[in-house]
Amino acid sequence: EAQVTQNPRYLITVTGKKLTVTCSQNMNHEYMSWYRQDPGLGLRQIYYSMNVEVTDKGDVPEGYKVSRKEKRNFPLILESPSPNQTSLYFCASSLGHRETQYFGPGTRLLVL
Amino acid sequence: GNSVTQMEGPVTLSEEAFLTINCTYTATGYPSLFWYVQYPGEGLQLLLKATKADDKGSNKGFEATYRKETTSFHLEKGSVQVSDSAVYFCALRNPGAGGTSYGKLTFGQGTILTVHP
Predict the structure, then answer these.
(1) Which of A33, A93, B1, B24 has the CA that lies 20 to 30 A from A75?
(2) Taking Cα atoms as reference points, which of A35, A29, A31 lies closest to residue A47?
(3) Secondary structure of residue A79 in the 3-state scheme
(4) What are the pLDDT digits (tens) for B23-37?
């Protein structure tokens, strides 16, 4: 089944403790992206990747890192999480940047 | 820059009622327009899209027409069902060139729809 998977689905952590949210797609998509969803703000793009080893900032990249070493994986790294990064995170992928984006199920993060 | 504005929610309707969720946008160039739906506890699913002016996207009884003159992409359904209860997001994507964020979807704030039997 074609899908985008994220892990973990739920995470509670404390300020400053490094964490990684994984994202994987099995559709051989070149384009991948991370968004965060906050009430009243919709979804905002954090980072995106056009292909392996090609990444760039979105609208709200501060406090996040990404890497794209393999085509199928696009992990989101929070080196030192803070409470303002408490949010619902979605990974998305598409064949190319002009194609329809498919979203993962989301990761709900709470930073205490 | 690009922006999307959706009507304030939440919207509460009775089954078989007519639905309209307003969406207007601001963008440079000729964006593609989308409606995504998010069912409780799930990720976003593409509901419909339109890529040029006067295009009509349709799916599952929902429709939206790309109106360039009014910069709008309102979502409509003639008869809603309880199973349509979800959050609906309007979004746009610019073609992307010259250093802009390729592929980025710009979302509205979302509209919660609740349909009662």
Answers:
(1) B1
(2) A35
(3) coil
(4) 999 988 789 999 999
